[in-house]
Amino acid sequence: MSSPKGSEKKPASEVRSTATQNLKKKFKPPKDEHLLRKTKNKKPNNTFTKKAEGRVVKRQLPKFKSSHGKTPNSGAVQKFSRPPKTGQKGKEGAQDDQTEEDPFPGDAPIPHARLQKHKRGKAEDLDKNGVTFLSNRIHLKKKEKLVKYAVNLAARSEILLPEETGFLEPAKGDCTSEITQVQIKSSVDITSATKQFDLSMQFGPYAINYLRNGRKMLIGGRMGHVAAFDWVTKQLTCEMNVMESVHDVAWLHNETLFAVAQKEWTYIYDNQGIEVHCIKKLNNVLRMEFLPYHFLLATTNDSGTLSWLDVSMGKMVKRTHTHLGRLDVLCHNPRNAVLCCGHSKGTVSMWTPNFVSPVVKMLCHTQPVRSVAVDQSGVYMATSSIDCSLKIWDLRTYNCLQSYKLGCGASNITFSQRGLLAVSMGNIVEVYKDICTETIHKPYLKHFVGSSVSGLKFCPYEDVLGVGHARGMCSMLVPGAGEPNFDALESNPFQTKSQRRETEVKSLLEKIQPELITLDPFELGEVNRQSVIEKFEEKTRYMV
Q1: Predicted confidence (pLDDT) per residue in 393-433, tens digit
Q2: How many domains does the chain have?
Q3: Which positions ≥6 away from 519 have C-beta within 8 Å?
Q4: DSSP per-residue string spanning 284-329
Q5: DSSP state of 193
Q6: What DSSP assignment string belongs to 366-390?
Q7: Would residue 363 count as lying in a domain?
Q8: Are 139 and 182 in the same domain?
């Protein structure tokens, strides 16, 4: 058949040449012809290679689809631009910000004094301690980095603490020791004024003790009267008469249990006054101290025996006979949980449940020691004797820093959380400020009690000093004595019932074993080089 006119078929070569000519007219060729030659016969490839650490890694590039659903050419370059979000500047504003430099680059500096306050000791010298194993060196270096980070974080977060301590500031020519409790009570707010009160009772002299969070108070009279109450709201928790002499009282880990050292044995009661345990091994006890992180009840008796009882399991950890006579002076160091005992020969001995003999024995006075106290940091120790002397000691070097002569022998001394020292002399209570670091000539506060003082305790997290005497007890207002900011995970004065249970379970799980009580707590983090070498030699001996 003959094809119609104008519909003759052209050869394929002519059709291709005309198509390329039309494309050349519409689109100009690139200036760099060598690029065109390279990409002319190149197939689209969605992978790229990357050299990393001597090996070639191939990765698949994501495929982007255009608006009409087709995949764009691999040679085409697509730019995706998003509109600036609210609160952000456009391109012009971003360029301006890039040109402007920060006048204060980096983090804000931390004062050196604040860093020293939160410092946790010196860094470990790996070469000096002989740490040769690479794994141990890496582990210790990581630990030092974490400690340094924690110190910086604690020092930087101090600005978030809302409360500050406040002291009495006298006018020119006046002295704060002349200010009475009546004047302080009339000058403060109503809530603080209710914290100053007097209780007149007839079963004294009284021993007193505060709970760790400062909320509850426990008193015990020598004639058998025992009472526990919330001293802020004056709400009575329990009250009883044990019908025999009471020498000392102590709260245990929380307000549900407390211990009473009675005439013959030691008893443990709950918050309703019901007898829970009778510990006959702790007989004729004179003084008691509770170690909260170890759950140990430490006691001394009139025969010179020192005992540690684990109240979580009811197990006697250690009983040591000191051979130093009657032990009626006792306190513990909050830093390392070491017990400090005062003796009739003017010496102060320090004890741990791991040794039969004292770890430290100091000759502090030429006359019998009447009272011993250690501050919250565990650095300073105060001792008093019947020769009217009061001395401050540095427990790092065991040197005497200050020596004072009082009007009479101090029967009771105690430190507050902020370093104030309370001293009782007969029926007079004096409070000293900065006594450990400076030479003091006058007391910070002075208060007259109606009868002889038998017990002194500062209330934690409150500017209150509890005084037990022969006719009852009284509460003094001491501005600047307590820590203004408390850690709710450590001791919360406003904890609920569920929080108390959770805290009890957590503290039991994190209980420190008695074997870890040492004079220097930093020894626990050091490496015993000799034992490591011995283990290494044993392994190599069998390998050969």
Answers
A1: 999 999 999 999 998 889 999 999 999 999 999 999 999 99
A2: 2
A3: 336, 338, 350, 352, 359, 360
A4: SEEEEEEETTTTEEEEEETTSEEEEEETTTTEEEEEEE-SSS----
A5: H
A6: SS-EEEEEE-TTSSEEEEEETTSEE
A7: yes
A8: no
